[in-house]
Amino acid sequence: MKDNIMIEQRFANQRGFSDHGWLKARFTFSFANYWDPKQIGFSDLLVINDDQIASGRGFGTHPHKNMEIFSYVLEGALEHRDSMGNGSIIKAGDIQLMSAGSGVTHSEFNPSSTQKTHSLQIWIVPNEENTKPTYQQHHIPNELKRGKLQLIISPDGENNSLYIRQDIKIYSGLFDGEEQEIFNIPENRYVYLHVARGSLKINDLIFNAGDGARIRHEQQLHFNHGQNAEVLLFDMRPIETNCPYM
């Protein structure tokens, strides 16, 4: 990456891919058997997995430790159970944040017998280790995201966002037709963009479903010309990677 490239696009077809039959997954960053030394997260953002889960299937009980794990359901639902005693259904439009802290086990399944689940699983490195595990879930109505970027996760839980143990703010937006938004990037911050579905222009660059971008040294982002677009924006510390496994 050259220093003068301020918006470094990563296209959907450049991601890793895994097909287990019941699970079809695209990996923005290195994960499981997909390894690319140039794609080991960005700042404190470590994982964006784009999962298509068949009806009645899912991830059995497994452990996590010292990771902020964020689930974003785009289509269908996920049934969540964990060792903290939580049991819930996460539906399209819901967000869930589990702080694994000192250790937690959980499972996630598609509860439908007929429909697939389309969801994003996102991992963020925490700024504290071995804390008490916590669980949060919240529904974000589409009208709050319509034509703008809505804060959904933040370090202090401002504006009814979910609280995360890291210096990161996460926004979600829906853009279609003439809807447009300008995001002013705070000074000395990095941004990562992920387009979950649809297409739109950002600073005159075209983004389609599954595309993303590392953004450094920009001041503003202009969102427009959306076609049923849903986008996530991560406002982060200006470091290149915080991968705990390196």
UniProtKB/TrEMBL annotation:
Keywords attached to this Swiss-Prot or TrEMBL record, sorted alphabetically, are:
Iron, Metal-binding
Pfam families linked: Pirin, Pirin_C_2
Keyword Coiled coil part of the UniProt annotation: no
- Top-rank lineage group of the source organism: Bacteria
Domain named Pirin N-terminal is located at: 14-124
Cofactor(s), by name: Fe cation
CDD domains given in the database record: cupin_Yhhw_C, cupin_Yhhw_N
Q: Which GO molecular function annotations are given, in alphabetical order?
A: metal ion binding
Residues recorded as binding Fe cation, renumbered to this chain, are 62, 64, 106, 108
Which Gene3D superfamilies does this one have?
Answer: Jelly Rolls
Q: How is the cofactor bound?
A: Binds 1 Fe cation per subunit.
Residues forming the Quercetin 2,3-dioxygenase C-terminal cupin domain are 151-236
- Family designation: Belongs to the pirin family.
Query: What name does UniProt use for this protein?
Result: Pirin superfamily (YhaK)
Recorded source organism is Commensalibacter communis
